[in-house]
């Protein structure tokens, strides 16, 4: 896969991201994803989440994310969203859901980061519709939180949609998008205004489902009101 070519039209794609809140990137199907998937899966063992393991890191380096994407996202963050933080404020995590996992579904939430990118690594086949962990997302489901207190209250408010029933209710009033990632095209969206979650990975699936989740730029300070509120809530 020619990486330079891959990123050729990123500027126009990023315009779409700003315009409508999400955009798909070119397919990774030419990349040897099966090989990568088994390396990452071995590294993860029984874990569902792993933060930037060595194989994950190697992929992001080869993918030249820090050359072609991150600086552009950082520019947008500063100019459009008034982000004040560093380019290094990123959170990369691999997510592996085994068939039949009954926890990893319908947990609708907003990210605290400005941008979220879902990179499909291994997507299973399912005999049933909506049974292979498809992403469900609602672009522009809320306004950009003005500060960390409204961010916190907003997050608590939307908790009631974090179930299949709640989500159906939310879908009545909002534009719902679904993405299977069968085409192996990564998806980039505005993380803190897009409500998102996944369908179940049913036990009838052909394999685990593995994605890399890239999060860029958390505007909330580490030791602020938001983290204090989180601390009180979680204790
Ligand atoms: Fe998320």
Describe the structure.
This protein is an alpha+beta fold and 235 residues long. 35% of the residues lie in helices and 19% in strands. The strands form two sheets. The protein has a six-stranded antiparallel sheet. Strands 6-5-8 form a three-stranded antiparallel sheet, with no helix packed on it. α3 (33-44) runs antiparallel to α4 (54-62) and α7 packs parallel to α9 (225-234). It starts with a helix and ends with a helix.
Kindly summarize this structure in a few lines.
Helices cover 35% and strands 19% of the residues. It is built from 9 helices and 9 strands.
Tell me the span between the first and last alpha carbons.
Answer: 48 Å
Q: What is the residue-mean pLDDT, rounded to a whole number?
A: 92
Radius of gyration: 17 Å
Number of helical elements: 9
Listed once per kind, the bound small molecules are: fe (ii) ion
Helix residue percentage: 25-40%
């Amino acid at each position: 896969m020619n990486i330079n070519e891959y990123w050729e039209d990123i500027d126009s794609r990023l315009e779409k991201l700003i315009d409508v809140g999400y955009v798909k990137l070119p397919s990774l199907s030419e990349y040897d994803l099966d090989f990568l998937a088994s390396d990452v899966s071995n590294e993860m063992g029984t874990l569902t989440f792993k933060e930037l393991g060595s194989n994950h890191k190697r992929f992001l380096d080869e993918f030249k994310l820090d050359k072609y994407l991150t600086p552009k996202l950082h520019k947008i963050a500063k100019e459009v969203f008034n982000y004040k933080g560093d380019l290094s404020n990123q959170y990369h995590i691999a997510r592996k859901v085994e068939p039949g996992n009954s926890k990893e579904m319908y947990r609708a939430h907003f990210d605290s980061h400005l941008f979220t990118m879902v990179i499909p690594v291994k997507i299973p086949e399912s005999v049933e519709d909506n049974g292979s962990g498809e992403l469900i997302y609602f672009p522009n489901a809320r306004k950009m939180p003005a500060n960390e207190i409204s961010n916190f209250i907003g997050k608590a408010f939307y908790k009631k949609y974090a179930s299949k029933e709640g989500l159906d209710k939310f879908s009545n009033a909002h534009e719902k998008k679904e993405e299977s990632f069968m085409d192996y095209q990564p998806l980039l969206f505005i993380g803190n205004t897009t409500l998102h979650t996944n369908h179940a990975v049913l036990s009838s699936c052909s394999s685990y489902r593995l994605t890399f989740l890239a999060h860029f730029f958390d505007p909330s300070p580490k030791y602020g009101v938001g983290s204090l509120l989180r601390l009180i809530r979680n204790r």
